[in-house]
Amino acid sequence: MKKFSKIVALSMALALTFGMTVCAQVSSDTMNKWEDKAKDTSATTSDGQIVEMTATEAIGGEAAVNAVSNAVADLSNSLTQQIVQAASITKASDVSLVFVLDIKPTASISGAITVTIPFQVAQPAANQKYVLMHYTATGWVPVEGASVNADGSITFTSSSFSNYALFLVTEDTSSDDDNNNGSGNSNSNSNSNNNGGTTTTQAPASEPVSPKTGESVPVAGFAALILLAGAAVCAKKVQLNN
Question: Are residues 195 and 81 in the same domain?
Answer without folding.
Answer: yes
